[in-house]
Amino acid sequence: MAQTEEEKKTKAREATRKWRANNRERANALARASQKKWREENPELHRARAKEWKAQNIERFQYTRAKWRKEQRDHLNAYRRKQHYKNKYGLTIEQRDALLAAQDHCCAVCSARDPGNKIGWVVDHRREPFKVRGILCHFCNLALGNVKDNTETLHKLIHYLEKHKCQT
Ligand SMILES: [Zn+2]
After folding, report:
1. What percentage of the chain reaches a pLDDT higher than 90?
2. CA–CA separation, 42 and 129 (whole Å)
3. C-alpha closest to that of 123 among 147, 140, 148
4. Sequence-distant (≥ 6) Cβ neighbours of residue 122 within 8 angstroms
5. Cα(110)–Cα(91) distance, rounded to whole angstroms?
6. How far is the CA of 122 from the centre of ligand 1 (A)?
7. Residues 6+ apart with CB under 8 A from 86
């Protein structure tokens, strides 16, 4: 029995759909290229249509834009974080995480389980010669900074506290 025109079209559409499903990346690339070509050939029409679409779908437009901006921000923050560890401590994020895991996920000095601030754990380092010493909580890092890593001052502080300890 001969196929009707309608049956032929349906079959062709089905074949195209199957090909697209099996070659998604290629199909998307082809679609993108064809859309780009059309936009380049019809810049004014494209602008007018985009403007019309935006006016009719303002909520969706705003949602998509906010989502895109957040993704860009997250991406940029992750990149900056990675660069920060690399430039300042010569560590990858993975090496820093491994250090913290080796300390059982707590401060290397006071064993606090919470870093004590919003920024998070601090990579503590000796300056001259440079060496990463460990991961500290915010307060222990401040304490070392305040005494400028001076062990003598720290001993004196302990002595001072012991001397004035309540004896009762
Ligand atoms: Zn601590």
Report:
1. 88
2. 63
3. 140
4. 115, 135, 136, 137, 138, 141
5. 23
6. 10
7. 92
Report, as an integer, the average pLDDT of 149-155: 96
* Distance from residue 137's CA to the centre of ligand 1 (Å): 4
**Distance from the alpha carbon of residue 23 to the mean position of ligand 1, in angstroms:** 55
How far, in Å, is the centroid of ligand 1 from the Cα of 107? Answer: 5
Residue type, 94: E
pLDDT at 109: 97
Give tens-digit pLDDT for 27-78: 999 999 999 999 999 999 999 999 999 999 999 999 999 999 999 999 999 9
Q: How far is the CA of 136 from the centre of ligand 1 (A)?
A: 5
* Residue 61 phi, psi (nearest 5): -60, -50
Across the chain, how many H-helices and E-strands are there? 7, 2
